Amino acid sequence: MKALLSKAVGGPDTLVLEDVPSPESKPGFAVVSVKAIGVNFPDVLIIEDKYQFKPARPFAPGGEIAGIVKSVGEGVTHIKPGDRVLGNTGWGGMAEELALEAARLVKIPDAMPFDDAAAFIMTYGTSYHALKDRAELKPGQTLLVLGAAGGVGLAAVELGKQMGARVIAAASSQEKVDLCKRHGADDGVVYGRGPFDRDGQKQLAEHFKQACGPNGADVIYDAIGGDYAEPALRSIAWEGKYLVVGFAAGDIPKIPLNLALLKGCDIVGVFWGAWVGKNPKLHQKSVAELLDMYTAGKIKPYVSERFTLANAAEAIKHLASRRAMGKVVVTVD
To answer: Residue 150 gets which letter from DSSP?
Structure first.
């Protein structure tokens, strides 16, 4: 079988497509014939050794997959060969076949296409955990989403509306803000490309404040970081919650902690991958709720572009450019 491998630290150009042995089932595991792979920002970081996890090389990137169960190991009872499934993998997904702990696999509805399934679990899982478990978002609250047209951002927009919030989408172009409005955002902010000087940060903070209104944002969802973080925090409501989701801008911001004191707010970390490992039953409940929303037509991944496994490195490069909107998916013939 073929797999896209990271054999040396570097960007997408260092990835190579090679033939590797097909995996075998072992106790507690299942082998999946992969049909689609979701591309996410951690795929950019993990091949550069900048992610929280650093797998031994060679490894394939690809943190979420959808496909058909080929075989199962001893002790696996909740899935069987022939089942259509999705799974969060961490890495290893960009391959024609994948052996994965069976507990990471979830059966998907018959009507759910594989590209939707591959674009589903990391974005909606992360954003649902952030908004429901970490922020305890309530109906009528104001939610400001940074990087709102990206995978996790657009999922946060949709879920925020389903949870009854007023959603403000912040993105780097009017085209991206318009996409967010089509997915339920009430209003939007177009911000420029950083880095910003102090005057630029103050101006950005004013844009956020004007969009959020006089009371500020009750919850801020930040998957961008960098120079955008402090201006966003300045727009938070009294006793608001600032969700630290990721750093797509590339830099980890240094936040003046006097702002947290003056706003009486919480700065809350969101590490969905670790939470899943520590709370498997809660994760299963959340996935069931998300699939119910999908089946009811309340949420749906926006897959903007599709690549084949042969040019999957280009998919990662495209995501790293920050030009992508919604989800990018690699399909396997």
So the answer is: S
User: Looking at residue 197, what is its pLDDT?
Assistant: 87
**Phi, psi (deg, nearest 5) at residue 189:** -130, 130
Mean pLDDT lowest for which of 50-54, 62-66, 70-74, 243-247?
50-54
Q: 47 falls in which pLDDT band (50, 70, 90)?
A: very high
Helix then strand count (H, E) for the chain reads 11, 15
Q: How far apart are CA 30 and CA 7, in angstroms?
A: 25
DSSP 309: G
Query: Torsion-angle region of residue 47: left (phi > 0), alpha (psi -120 to 50) or beta?
Result: alpha
Here the tokens at position 263 are 């706003």
Distance separating alpha carbons of residues 26 and 318, to the nearest angstrom: 36
- What distance in Å separates the CA atoms of residue 37 and residue 121, rounded to the nearest whole number? 11
Q: What is the DSSP string of 63-119?
A: SEEEEEEEEE-TT--S--TT-EEEEE-SS--SBSEEEEEGGGEEE--TTS-HHHHHT
Residues written for the chain = 333
Residue 116: C-alpha distances to residues 45, 124, 302 (Å): 23, 11, 8
